[in-house]
Amino acid sequence: MSQPLIKTSDANLHMMNGNVPLHILKDINLKIDASEVVAIVGPSGSGKTSLLMVLSGLEKASSGNISVAGHDLSGLNEDQLAIFRRRNLGILFQNFHLITSMSALENVALALEIAETGLGVAKIREKAVAALKEVGLGERLNHLPSALSGGEQQRVGLARAMVTRPRLLLADEPTGNLDQDTGAMVIGLMFDLARKQGTAVMLITHDSALAEKADRTLIMDHGRLSEKSPAKANTGVRKPAGAKT
Ligand SMILES: Nc1ncnc2c1ncn2[C@@H]1O[C@H](COP(=O)(O)OP(=O)(O)O)[C@@H](O)[C@H]1O
Ligand SMILES: [Mg+2]
Q1: What is the pTM of this model?
Q2: Coil, strand, or helix at residue 71?
Q3: Cα–Cα distance between 219 and 123 in angstroms, integer?
Q4: CATH of span 6-229
Q5: Do 88 and 166 form a contact (C-beta atoms < 8 A)?
Q6: For residue range 187-237, what is the model confidence (pLDDT) as tens digits?
Q7: CA 75, CA 66: separation in Å to the nearest integer?
Q8: Nearest Cα residue to atom 27 of ligand 1
Q9: Hey, where are the domains in the chain?
Q10: Distance between Cα 50 and ligand 1 center (Å)
Q11: What's the pLDDT tens digit per position in 155-169?
Q12: Contact 80, 120 (CB under 8 A)
């Protein structure tokens, strides 16, 4: 068996909010395999985005181990983490983080340039155009983010995250700004990436239709991650024997 793409052991994240210590992630034990699509659900403020930050090395776990694509993140310095992200990760941020001075096409092309794929300028452009067409933005290539709707910016962010065919895609509310049809389309793209390229996909979502499609759903609650119980999800509350129906 190959190694899981993500493996964490008792990962914790503590932060200070002014003088107030916060325990944001609590003993996270998470495994995600290549080709697997895992949904993370949970209330606002429960720690979902913080988990994404820790898995991408953008926040350092306070304790525990985090291994992603064979890298022990605690052993990497900031420069090495940046290289690790460029080569292995695609990240769709909750608020997209597009570069405001660059067009949709330039935003997507930049991801390919810094991933050090060795591709030439023409090939990079071709792949970036194809990625934007895939998310339905073939007519928006030269638009700046400010000239795009929220849903369009979100899809540029997704094209940028997927264009490098990353080993791990981390997507924070990927359908949050999309109508149902467009949402279904981008879900299809993420599943294609998982099934055809072997990408491990972790998506954070409030969208129950999206969570149901995932291979597994995990629940974040007050910084703790647990498996969603299939029995509970399918049968609802179990009645005691002899209870009135
Ligand atoms: N940089 C930070 N400094 C202090 N507290 C933070 C920081 N980032 C997140 N938090 C806190 O951590 C908790 C989890 O936040 P977050 O991971 O964004 O939740 P979610 O994505 O589930 O809505 C919240 O209580 C939030 O206020
Ligand atoms: Mg969040």
Answers
A1: 0.91
A2: strand
A3: 41
A4: 3.40.50.300
A5: yes
A6: 999 999 999 999 999 999 988 889 999 999 999 999 999 998 764 444 444
A7: 10
A8: 45
A9: 6-229
A10: 6
A11: 999 999 999 999 999
A12: no
